[in-house]
Sequence to fold (203 residues):
Amino acid sequence: MQPSQVRRHDTQGLLQALAGMLRAVLAALVLACTQVAHAQGVELATLQTTRGDGALNLEFAARINLPRAVDDALQRGVPIYFVAEAQLLRNRWYWRDERVSRVVRSWRVAYQPLARFWRVGLGGLNQTYDTLSEALNAASSSAGWKLADLSQLDADRSYYVEFSYRLDTSQLPSPMQFGLGGQGDWAVGASRVIKVDLQAGTP
Fold:
C-alpha cells in the first residue's frame, strides 16, 4: 500500500470515529435533557408521546399555580391566554437538527363577573366552568394532539420533542403590557425536552 493510500485510509477511519462520537454525544445530551425542565408557576405533571391512528401524538397535563397579580387580573375580568407549543425534531450529527413539525394551541381563560362563571376557549369552542380551578385544568392539558404522521418518520432515526407551555403576555390588553417585559409574576411557564421512542411496543 502506498503512503498516500495509508494516509487516506487513516483519515477516513478518523472521520468515521469522530462521527460516531458526535452521534453518541448528541444522543446523550438529548437523553439528559429529558430530565431537565425550566418552570415558573407551572408543573408539567405529564408529558409523553403516543401512537395511534397512524400518527405520533402528544399528551400533556400541567398544574398551574397562578401568582397573585395574575389571579387578581382574572378576578377583575381580564382574559388570560395560555399557549402550548411542541416541535418534533430529527437528530442530525452533521448539521443542525431537522424540524419535522411544529404545532401550537392557545386557550383563553376569562371570568364573567355578572354570570359568575369561568369560560375557556380553544379555537372556536367554548366551555363554561363554576370555578377557576376547573377552568385552569381544562386549559392546561391535551391528549391525542397530532405531531406527525408515522409515515413521515424513520424508525431507525432519533427524534425528540421540544415542548413549552406558558402564559402569553402578548395577548393581554395593550395598557397591561407596558412594563411587563416578560418578567416578574407574569413570567409563568414551563419547558421540557423529551426523547421519542418509535420502537416502544413494537415486536
